[in-house]
Each structure stands twice: as C-alpha cells, then as structure tokens.
Amino acid sequence: MNTTVEERTPDHDEIIRVVQGYVEGFQGRRDKLEAAFHEDAWILAVDAEGGFSRDLISDRFERWAASHRQVRGRVIQVTQAGEVASVLLGFDNTENLADSWVDVLALLKLDGRWQITHKSAVHSTRAAWASPVAS
Prior knowledge:
- It is a single chain.
- This protein is of the alpha/beta class.
- The chain has a single domain, classed as Nuclear Transport Factor 2, Chain: A (Roll).
- It has helices spanning 12-24, 30-36, 61-67; strands at residues 2-3, 37-46, 52-56, 71-81, 84-93, 101-110, 113-123.
- It has a seven-stranded mixed β-sheet.
- A hairpin with a 2-residue loop joins strand 4 (71-81) and strand 5 (84-93).
- The two termini are 22 Å apart.
- 27% of the residues are buried.
C-alpha cells in the first residue's frame, strides 16, 4: 500500500494496518474484512452511472472475499483526532484503473482497537483529482 501522507498521525501505522486488512479481504480473506470493520459498519456508495446503494458492510463480506479482485490501496490522506480517524483511500483495480473507487473510511478506536465504522465510496469516474486516472 502506497502512502502519500507527509505527516504521520499518532496511530498512523495502526490505522493503515486496519485499512490494509480491508484491501486484503478482497483476496479471499473474509477474516481480514471481519477484523477491519465494526460489525455495525455501513457503506454508502455511488456507482459510475450515479446509482446509489447502502448496505450493512457485513452483508457484503462473502461477495467481496469471493471476488479476488486485483486491487491496490492508495492512501491519499489520514486524519486523526484522538480516538476518531478518517482515511481517504484510492481503491484501485490494477487490472483496469478506470474501474476503481475512492473511499472515505471513518474509524473509531474501540476497546483499544481501530475499526472501520463507515465507508462512503464513489466510482473513480466521480472522484475528480483523487481518481487513479485523473488528468
């Protein structure tokens, strides 16, 4: 996972480890997804055509783990304020960069452990400068 963050937050490495687990979950590692996300985490997403969806993320674990998509996590920004953090993440499809996503992940430190509690995502065609194919 590439990081473009110049200044590191206090828990930067722990936060990135959780995000990396989310990315690795797409390689048949449902256990990584379960560890990265809080059980009550939600996703709100807008696809390339503008269609909106929302789901409990755990309802997507099986499909995500079975996809075996060749993806790379591109950390664009990490922000932390105590026990709350956000990560702006390029979720890049290495087989077809034009079919990538940009996520805003919200994390909370619960019982001493960082977990993703919310994911907002847009297809890379709607992510302007954050798209992996931005001009």
